[in-house]
Amino acid sequence: MRNWKALLSAILLGVVAGLPLYGGAYLLSVANLLLIHMTLALSWSLLLRSGQLSLGISGFFGLGVYVAALSLVRVGLHPLVGILLGGVMSGVLALGVGAAVLHLRGMYFAIVTLALAEAFRVIIRNVPNLSGGPEGMVLPALIFDGDSFKTFWFALAVAISTLALLMVVSRSKVHIALTAIRNDETVAQSSGVNVYQYLLWIFALTSAIQGVAGGLYAHIYGFISPEGSFSLDLVLLPIIMAVVGGATTTWGPVIGAVLLGSVSELLKIKIPHGHLLIYGVIIVIVVLFFPKGVIGTLQEKIRRRL
Amino acid sequence: MSEAILSIKGLKRQFGGLMALHDVTMEIFEGEILGIIGPNGAGKTTLINVITGVHLPTQGSLLLGGADMTLLPAHERCRLGVARTFQLAKPLEDLSPLENIMLGALFGQRLRKRDAEKRAEEICELVGLADVRRPLARLSVLDVKKMEIARALASKPRLLFLDEAMAGLNSNETLEIIRLVRKIRDQGITIGIVEHVMGVIRELSHRVVVLNFGQLLAVGPYEEVANNRQVIEAYLGEET
Amino acid sequence: MKGMAGKNTLLAALAVAGAVLLACWKPYVLIEGVQRAGLYAAITLPMALLMGVLGIVNLAHGDFMMLGAYLAYGLSVYLGVDPLLSIFPAMAVFFLFAMIVYVGTFNHVLDAPELNQILLAFGLMIILTQGANLLWTSRFIKISLPYVSESVTMGSLTFGTYGFVYVAAALIILIGLRVFLKKTRMGQAALAVGQNRRGAKLVGINVDWTHLIIFSLSIAIIGAMGCVFITRHSISPLVGFPYTLRAFCLIAMAGIGNLTGIVWVSLLLGVAENMVLSFHGYAGWADLIYFILIIAVIMVKSRKRHRQ
After folding, report:
1. Which of B202, B205, B211, B177 has the alpha carbon at shortest distance from B191?
2. Engineered SS bond to B28: which of B6, B203, C196, C292, CB 3.0-4.6 Å?
3. Residue A291 phi, psi (nearest 5)
4. Domain locations in chain B?
5. Among B93, B104, B135, beta carbon nearest to A191
6. Contact present, B80 and B67 (Cβ < 8 Å)
7. Could you tell me the pLDDT band of residue A306, with boundaries at 50, 70 and 90?
8. Does the pLDDT of residue B9 top 60, yes or no?
9. Model confidence, pTM
10. Considering only CB atoms, which chain C residues are within 8 Å of A287?
11. Whether pLDDT at C3 is above 80
12. Which residues of chain B are within 8 Å of residue A188 when distances are taken between CB atoms?
């Protein structure tokens, strides 16, 4: 049983990793974007497991974009270092902001993260000499010198590492702690869980991942702007992917990303201006009719049959 | 008799305009089963909440075995050895019963996952809970109660509070829990038990404290307390 | 209680002192700050009503205002109706629209986990803004009205008077809501539901109906505010979002259920933003003030809770 799972995974991995060899430039760029969204979806869902919903993905992502770009342009750091630095800074900032706002729960936390992302955008917009302002900035050099094969594999590595992280967490006591916090905080703390600390570190970790994804994005596209880096796409798509797939499961965001990533490409071609609207409708429909997503609903059906 | 494991002095807890606990001073002695009774709204659950750290006291002090835990957060009190069950059962629905129980062992006692699982299984044997890997939704009312008690026991408490553990159980099930409470106490754990069923209190308690309107009315063995005029008035007639 | 009176008098004294100081040093900041505060308060009050009674944060709040603005634009351009007059048909239209939205969506998630409510509100926000974008593109549009540039000269000051319409709107909404909540049966029912939903149900209040009416009322008011908004602002599909964020910040500062408090904190925000705007070169930073304020409020409140 274990063997064929491993074999299947290896084949799948081989097929995906081999994409640069048989796919064209277009397919590669779609795949890159999908991997970034998948990483964001996975990180978002990890925080969700604690019961906290963040609407501020674009904030930490955008911060990662600008840190990576500016560290390259202004300081001359190696692209890889810049990307990792973007992750670190997002994580540190999340620690700081989280220390203040993680006393909030639910709706209040969500809207504060939304305001936070908006605040980042305002800051970037207001320091044009540093950030290139609303017109944006072109990156003079790209990671791996723009080698599309290596860039794709790096994006794949980032996505797979995030997935691996979630898998490790799911098997560890962290999973039990997060689920306990989500289900009933009073029970959790009365059983010895330091709720505040768990929330803080998960918030920092997931924000750091979003920062790394941002840095990666900067190097894939070679051009950054407040419009693109803090766009609503980046909040909306990962959330939909996670929710459609199954927000608190490990593979849900992956499946959601593959499904919706492909659908979104089709939509962009057929309905260039309405695709965000359709995402909004999808969220509403899923929340109303399939709150547990694809995987979650399947899991429940299986559980009921047992 | 024995040492005081919990020492409460001048405990006050205010919620906005309501004084839920008013100057409560008492001790719980090691190894005893203490009954906590009083009419509805007397502050029994609030008392447990303040002792376990769900709420911080507005005033007063709490000493556990001589150590001051008045301002400690709830999770640290659990690690020091205070545990409780809840009046309205709160099973964690996204976890299996076994994982529910493991919670205390993992975070109260800080065991590694494998050791926590073993400890959880041991406790299941103690409380008489079988088949703990099946879905939570399948558990009977009695099993849920046992699971909650097991969850509290998993953190290896010195002091355990049971908040209306018998609520909703028939007489056979109540007997089973009574036997369980004695077994737990025989393991050296001090127990505070909130109950409305006087028979249970009479059966189990070494001493009884009576609360009304957040104040301590009486302390002593059951017979003494049951014949206390103030206590009878508190329960039967509140007409002034 | 004595402490409260002392604190309130101190705050009032500080406010008066601050106002006098501003009147002498930067009078335009004071005047325009008050006008801006009126706008913020008028927008925030209906959201506070909704939050207080249903417990939902309506992420799409500002977007309903945006739609109201587009409605007024349409009526103005195609039927020649003055936007301020459009308030009345707008209220009716949005009341009905809100009823449909509520029955179709929020009604189903009131008892669901809060995460679902948040996602629903978020999805609704996307649908409204993107729908508007699809219909009307992201181009900014404006109506020119002669009375908007009315101004008056007092001593050495010349300032626009139209902005006080916002102040009037805020006061009308505030007084209207307070009368509604205290004197009408529906209002009293709403207060009860807001305090204790189950309790209200137990005493016979039709909670579902109350929810429906209050939700629709909230949307009707904010939709009507859109008609007022467009008289002086240019609009685009995303114009409502910043106001949603500010409204939430103001409610958090005033405390849920404190309608009058919203007026005071609006003054604080309005004046503070205008103060920043008055310094050349720093204009862009005014948009951060509400965020700084809300972080400060959160930190102060959590420290208070810790001390308790």
Report:
1. B205
2. B6
3. -60, -20
4. 1-81+159-175+190-240, 89-157
5. B104
6. yes
7. low
8. yes
9. 0.89
10. 109, 116, 119-120, 123
11. no
12. 103, 107
3-state DSSP call for residue A118?
A: helix
**Highest mean pLDDT, choosing among A267-276, B148-157, C22-31:** B148-157
* pLDDT tens, residue by residue, B194-233: 998 888 998 899 999 999 888 998 899 988 888 888 888 8
Neighbours of chain B (3+ CB pairs under 8 A): A
DSSP B9-49: EEEEEEETTEEEEEEEEEEEETT-EEEEE-STTSSHHHHHH
pLDDT at C162: 85
What phi, psi does B208 have (nearest 5°)?
Answer: -135, 140
Q: Measure A106 CA to nearest chain C CA, in Å.
A: 6
Phi, psi dihedrals of residue A53, rounded to the nearest 5°: -105, 125
CB–CB contact C115 A273 (8 Å): no
Residues 6+ apart with CB under 8 A from C40: C243, C246, C247, C250, C266, C269, C270
Residue C112 with chain A: CB contacts under 8 Å: 291
Distance from CA of A169 to the nearest CA of B (A): 12
Minimum-distance CB partner of A53 among C115, C123, C290:
C115
CB pairs under 8 A between A and C: 110
First-to-last alpha carbon distance for chain C, in angstroms, is 17
* pLDDT confidence of residue B150: 94
Per-residue confidence (pLDDT) for residue C307, from 0 to 100: 61
- Helix (H) / strand (E) containing B209: strand B207-212
Cβ pair B99:A177 closer than 8 A: no
Q: Which fold has domain B1-81+159-175+190-240?
A: Rossmann fold (3.40.50)
A193 contacts on B by Cβ (under 8 Å)? 75, 103, 107
* B192-to-A78, A265, A297, B152, B205 alpha-carbon distances in Å: 63, 62, 42, 13, 9
Token pair 């925000």 is found at C269
3-state helix, strand, coil in chain A (%, to 5): 80, 0, 15
Chain A residues near residue C119 by CB distance under 8 angstroms? 53, 239, 243, 283, 287
Cα nearest neighbour of C304 on chain A = A103
What is the overall mean pLDDT for chain C? 88
Lowest mean pLDDT segment, chosen from A127-131, B114-118, C203-207 = A127-131
Q: How big is the CA angle at B122 (ends B117 and B128), to the nearest 5 degrees?
A: 120
What is the predicted pLDDT for the residue at C65?
Answer: 96
* pLDDT band for position A74 (cuts 50, 70, 90): confident
Give the length of chain A.
Answer: 306
* Residue B239 confidence (pLDDT): 43
Helices and strands in chain B, H and E counts:
9, 10
Highest average pLDDT, of B16-20, C29-33, C72-76, comes from C72-76
Least CB-CB distance to A191: which of B73, B113, B151? Answer: B151
Of the residues C59, C118, C134, the best mutation for testing chain A's interface (the one with the most A CB atoms within 10 Å of its CB) is C118
**H-type helices in chain C, by residue range?**
2-25, 27-54, 61-79, 83-101, 107-109, 114-136, 164-183, 185-195, 197-202, 207-229, 241-254, 259-277, 289-307
A41 touches chain C (CB under 8 A): no
Residue C167 has pLDDT above 80, yes or no: yes
What pLDDT is recorded for position A303? Answer: 66
